[in-house]
Write a structure and sequence with these properties.
Shape: elongated
Low-confidence stretches: none
CATH architecture of the largest domain: Up-down Bundle
Strand order of the largest sheet: 1-2
CATH class of the largest domain: Mainly Alpha
CATH superfamily of the largest domain: GntR ligand-binding domain-like
Number of helices: 11
Largest sheet: 2 strands, antiparallel
């Protein structure tokens, strides 16, 4: 658009957003925490001290601290002051997980698990400590015990629930072994969706085998394969084991009964 007076293109007027004092104070404190000036567990200055530091009134500081408290960045205790929290996305992300629930989301969750679990397992192959591998071995042992019980009785809700807990615990340990905090938080956030997916998957598979009169799958269970991939640093076999575990590639005797 040209100006009628000058014949030159006119500039479009844009509204300039004003940043409130509260937001400025909040951003400054948050940045100091991110920079490590105050670490998790540290007590931060009082409202009065911050008001003096920033040259603002105490109400603005109080509102900024309330905002940080709501975000889970600090914890304000009556009579004690405010302390830096070990920040996590869990409380925030868990609030929105409900929007991804529903029977039609089964394939979506399967694809999400594929992305997260495969990548975390791949990272775990290289980053897992000996102690973590030992703990994963214990988790696998517990899973196998629960899986054996489920293979003998796939219709009792309590037996299924125990197997789901053990299954999720195994995978969550692998996710934590990736040493990627964001992956861990996201996995924790969607755990209800993952648990629902695990429930549907192992319930269907075990009922098929039970009704077909097939024995416990034992060492051929994909969880054992994934564990061995991590222990033996075998990334080549990992992709196939992951796809079988999630049902992306059908397994004979589990997804296909002949």
């Amino acid at each position: 658009m040209e100006s009628e007076q000058t014949g030159r293109p006119s500039r479009r007027k844009m509204k300039i957003a004003r940043v409130s004092i509260v937001d400025q104070v909040c951003a400054s404190i948050k940045q100091d925490i991110a920079d490590g000036i105050w670490k998790p567990g540290d007590k931060i200055p009082s409202e009065a001290e911050f008001a003096d530091m920033f040259g603002v009134n105490r109400l603005s500081v109080r509102m900024a601290l309330q905002k940080l408290n709501t975000l889970g960045i600090i914890d304000t205790r009556v009579g004690e002051g405010s302390f830096v929290c070990k920040f996590s996305l869990k409380p925030i992300l868990s609030e929105i997980s409900i929007f991804y629930e529903g029977e039609d989301k089964y394939r979506d969750v399967q694809q999400l698990r594929n992305l997260l679990e495969y990548e975390c397992t791949r990272l775990a192959v290289h980053s897992a400590t000996e102690e973590e591998k030992k703990e994963l071995g214990e988790a696998l042992k517990h899973y196998n015990e629960c899986a054996l019980a489920l293979s003998k009785d796939p219709y009792t809700p309590e037996v299924l629930a125990n197997a789901v807990d053990a299954d999720f615990n195994f995978h969550y340990k692998v996710v934590k072994m990736s040493h990627n905090k964001l992956y861990k938080d996201i996995y924790y956030m969607v755990q209800q969706l993952i648990r629902s997916h695990i429930t549907e998957l192992i319930s269907t598979r075990n009922r098929r085998r039970y009704e077909a009169g097939l024995p416990f799958i034992g060492e051929d269970d994909t969880h054992n394969k994934i564990y061995n991939c991590i222990i033996n640093s075998d990334t080549e076999a990992l992709r196939a084991a992951n796809d079988e575990m999630l049902g992306i590639v059908p397994i004979r005797g589990m997804d296909v009964i002949e």
